[in-house]
Amino acid sequence: MRASQAGRVIPAPENHFPVSQLRLQRRNFIRGGMAASALVAGAGASAQGGGSTLIPPWTRSLGSPVVATGYGMPSKYEANVQRRQSPGLTPQPQASISFTPLQNLFGIITPSGVHFERHHSGMPTVDPEQHRLMIHGLVKRPLMLTMDDVMRFPSVSRIHFIECGANGGMEWGNVAVPTVQYTHGMLACSEFTGVLLSTLLGEAGVDRNKGKFVLAEGADGSALTRTIPLEFALNDVMVVYGQNGEMLRPENGYPLRLLVPGVQGVSSVKWLRRLEVGDKAWNTREESLHYIDLLPDGTHRQYSGVQEVKSVITMPSGGQKLVGRGYYEITGLAWSGRGKVKRVDVSVDGGRNWQSARLQEPVLAKALTRFRLDWSWDGAPALLQSRAVDETGHVQPTINQLRAVRGVRSIYHNNAMQTWRVQRDGEVWNVQLA
Amino acid sequence: MFNWRSALALVLMASAFPTYALQAPRYGLGRTPTPQEVAAWDIDVRPDGHGLKKGKGTVAQGQKIYDVQCASCHGTFGESNRYMPVAGGVRKEDLKTGRAAALRDAAGIRTLGTKLNYATTLWDYIYRAMPWTNPQSLTIDETYAVTAYVLHLNEIVPATFELDERALLAIQMPNRNGLTTAHGLGSVKGKPDAQGTLCMKDCVNEVKIASEMPEFARNQNGNLAGQKRPLGPMRGIDTARYDAGKPGAVTAAAASSAAPDPKDLLTRNACVACHGLTTKIVGPGFSEIASKYHGRADAETYLTKKVREGGQGVWGAIPMPPQAAISENDAGVIARWLVSGAK
């Protein structure tokens, strides 16, 4: 068995063996059929017990007690599933980005432990007892809320994606990174629990005549600030403390963050400590020096928040190797900051022909949607693409359709279709088409 | 007294706005913040002067602060491109047009001077978040001084300039007309500018690859074999082969060795933002520390404590902030490395 085939799917009953053991048996089989036949023939008989190699050690021993770990961790065999940084992207790990390993995930919920991270001045350790949320500005009743107060308000739980505006930013000019973790991994989707911002602004008595914007500010060293238009703030914005059934993780804003569904992640301010209602937008650093999109004529688009319709195939995807010909399920994720995903089409020939994929229920507004398509790989080179359409009718563009309008220097809001090339040897690589 | 006009107004308002805006607090949670609390937290400054703080500082005063507290990251002339350069690229005519011409060049550099539209934002950000390792440590006057110096580095104000709150509002930035909100990405109902094509059959004549991962870059993100779960229909590609023979290629075994690498800890905890290996940046160079404590019996314990608690006075007036995020264990690794010569 060649090393490059180490990942082959082996038909039963051989798949009961670790690959290393299997190699040995194969070798025996080739060297002298007798021994191997004996082993296979003996399988039924010795399966009765008596130390048979066909019965794994975990069946023949007592396992660990309950509460072996008070807070459970993934299996030790899942060690490859990690957030990672991309080299050269940022000069300091405290002002950096880690990417969600989308190539390893199922369904639509991102496990909290691998949710991508973006900090501007490192991750603070906020004591929830001392943490406060101040609401002031153009309100009748300025409020100072403890976490106890915030958690006493009527709550909602909703599933939404968070995508950094710079997701895919490395790929505007050309292919730059090898896997979907780095091309699309500033993306995650969680069930969030918290209070609707409209509830809190109602309690504070927001001035609906003069108030047009809300400034959100974090309690970290960057005291990050973003302007949220009241149009969003009173619609579906949440002040969140819960994520996937537990409190927010420290790296995702513990104990309190803003969630602006469908809008680039920077607006969902982490470690939220202050909300100020005002009559004008603030033009903060993160909306005048960064998170602005440079166009070919030298103009920057400002306050470009909405994450438009987008999709990507996660399996098979860049950096992976198919383990043989035959049946594969092509699967991936689709989302839109403007609402629900209506449809996803998949091409295996570089966009010549398309088939509509199955959408996994539930299909939720401003949440990830999982899509699937059956595919039989005949061993020939293939070019895999997906194309999403949202409920507003917006069709995901190609990278060249985007470049025609926005050039290659805008960094943010790259929602282009992704192409993966499947080579004859089964290797899958990131490519862009002319 | 029943008043038809107010009754009608109430009905209209109730239909136009959610009623909560008019009601007394519904849940009665929280309290009113004190004026001191508001003053301490409400530090935002807007281009229209909202939140502007009274104060002043000169370019010369700003340079003194900048050279000590800012230059280590941003460069003596604001030229460092480790981060977005805080100076450079501004042309004389930009100050008149309000459009930075450098942004039209495909290869033009993007800097604070060529991008930023309002000087108030520069003031706001320095005051709230700089210096990076010691935010909200500058006074209002110091912030005016540093802002003035950065504006001077961009040739927006002369060397003799004194910046105060009125002057700050009046600054005309080189790219003040360079930002636009005329696009569909600011609102849920916005119109997309790039629309895909809904075609299902024979959609393109010729498919050509325009860009792909060059072989030398295929292992740049680490070996992909270790980034995919080794189960299911796909495996990660073993990309180590692309780096075999490259100088400095790290083997998987070496990369996962158990003991933390002190230099890795220095990077991870941003020590290197203030300390050079051999030379002073803000704080002393590591080899300077090593030679100072060479031979001292309690050096390891002492330095472990200093790493975590910080201090002031041993190496000068600039304090080192406490580094509570570094574990005792990691601080010990750094201290041992310092004691053994910091090489």
Label the structural class of chain A. alpha+beta
Mean pLDDT of chain A: 91
Mean pLDDT of chain B: 86
- In the predicted model, the low-confidence regions of chain B spanning at least 5 consecutive residues are 7-22, 250-257
Tell me the CATH architecture of the largest domain in chain A: Alpha-Beta Complex
What proportion of the residues of chain B is helical, as a percent range? 25-40%
Supply the helix-strand structural class of chain B: mainly alpha
Mind telling me the C-alpha Rg of chain B? Answer: 28 Å
Summed up, the domain count of chain A is 3
Specify the oligomeric state: heterodimer
Overall 3D form of chain A: globular
Can you tell me about this structure?
The complex is a heterodimer of chains A (434) and B (343). With 434 residues, chain A is α+β, with helices and mostly antiparallel strands. A five-stranded mixed beta sheet of chain A has the order 4-3-12-7-8. In chain A, strands 5, 6, 9, 10 and 11 form a five-stranded antiparallel beta sheet that branches. Chain A has helices spanning 19-31, 33-46, 147-152, 180-184, 197-204, 230-233, 399-406; strands spanning 97-98, 117-118, 132-137, 143-146, 156-163, 187-196, 213-218, 225-229, 238-243, 246-247, 257-259, 272-278, 293-294, 300-301, 310-315, 320-322, 326-335, 341-347, 355-356, 358-359, 369-377, 382-390, 419-422, 428-433. In chain A, a hairpin with a 5-residue loop joins strand 3 (132-137) and strand 4 (143-146). Chain A has three domains: 7-60, no CATH class; 78-301, Oxidoreductase, molybdopterin-binding domain (Sulfite Oxidase, Chain A, domain 2); 310-431, Immunoglobulin-like, CATH 2.60.40.650. Chain A has seven helices and 24 strands. Chain B is mostly helical and 343 residues long. Among the domains of chain B are: 56-170, Cytochrome Bc1 Complex, Chain D, domain 2, CATH 1.10.760; 214-244, no CATH class; 262-339, Cytochrome Bc1 Complex, Chain D, domain 2 (Orthogonal Bundle), CATH 1.10.760. Chain B has 14 helices and five strands. Chain B has helices spanning 4-16, 35-41, 59-69, 71-74, 92-97, 112-115, 119-129, 140-153, 165-170, 252-255, 262-268, 286-292, 299-309, 328-339, and strands at residues 56-58, 162-164, 179-180, 209-212, 234-236. Chain B has a two-stranded antiparallel sheet with strand order 1-2. In chain B, helix 3 (59-69) packs across helix 8, helix 11 crosses helix 14 (328-339) and helix 13 (299-309) crosses helix 14 (328-339). The radius of gyration of chain B is 28 Å and the shape is globular. Chain B starts with a helix and ends with a helix. The relative contact order of chain B is 0.08. Residues 7-22 and 250-257 of chain B have low confidence and may be disordered. Chains A and B meet through strand 4, helix 5, strand 12, strand 13 and strand 14 of A and helix 2, helix 7, strand 3, strand 4 and strand 5 of B.
